[in-house]
């Protein structure tokens, strides 16, 4: 499955009706009115943008501008992260050294993920935005939170900090697995 299409699908399902209307308005100069009126979903609008080659996995500036205009910074950051992580270069890339601990944590931390994020210093507002962007996907909420932490810390994002936070949350088994 194409990772870019998966990302667009995720975006379309998280957009409200008013945000979809705003997107329709913003696309008026690029897409004909008749074509815009015939499509009611976010996915349909993204399909038109793809067909007209206004967006592609290696051409995201127009999409980024649209998302910024409707004030969906959470989606803008997901888009930037998609580009930064090299998904546009293909799935054959080597995984980031930080991805393995994140994968282990995601497989083993459940509903207590917010406690872990608080120990790592992620704000309630950021966690609420992540939950709003992924309302029914607990694992994705955790993944996005850990990525947000990593982005926030930058080069200071250390696996040892993850292990300390896990241990302070009494998630010792997960901490042991991350250490391995």
From TrEMBL:
The record places domain Death at: 98-180
Query: CDD domains recorded for this chain?
Result: Death_FADD
- List, in alphabetical order, the Gene Ontology terms for molecular function in this entry: caspase binding; death receptor binding; protein-macromolecule adaptor activity
One GO location term (cellular component): cytoplasm
The places in or outside the cell where this protein is found are: Cytoplasm
One of the GO BP terms on file: innate immune response
**From which domain of life does this come?**
Eukaryota
The answer to whether UniProt assigns keyword Nuclease to this entry is no
DED domain: residues covered: 3-81
What keywords appear on the UniProt entry? Apoptosis, Cytoplasm, Immunity, Innate immunity, Phosphoprotein
Q: List the SUPFAM superfamilies hit by this protein, alphabetically.
A: DEATH domain
* Listed PANTHER family: FAS-ASSOCIATED DEATH DOMAIN PROTEIN (PTHR15077:SF10), FAS-ASSOCIATING DEATH DOMAIN-CONTAINING PROTEIN FADD (PTHR15077)
Q: Subunit structure of this entry?
A: Can self-associate. Component of the AIM2 PANoptosome complex, a multiprotein complex that drives inflammatory cell death (PANoptosis). Component of the death-induced signaling complex (DISC) composed of cell surface receptor FAS/CD95 or TNFRSF1A, adapter protein FADD and the CASP8 protease; recruitment of CASP8 to the complex is required for processing of CASP8 into the p18 and p10 subunits. Interacts (via death domain) with FAS (via death domain).
The record's function comment reads: Apoptotic adapter molecule that recruits caspases CASP8 or CASP10 to the activated FAS/CD95 or TNFRSF1A/TNFR-1 receptors. The resulting aggregate called the death-inducing signaling complex (DISC) performs CASP8 proteolytic activation. Active CASP8 initiates the subsequent cascade of caspases mediating apoptosis. Involved in interferon-mediated antiviral immune response, playing a role in the positive regulation of interferon signaling.
Protein name in UniProt: FAS-associated death domain protein
Q: What organism does this protein naturally occur in?
A: Fregata magnificens
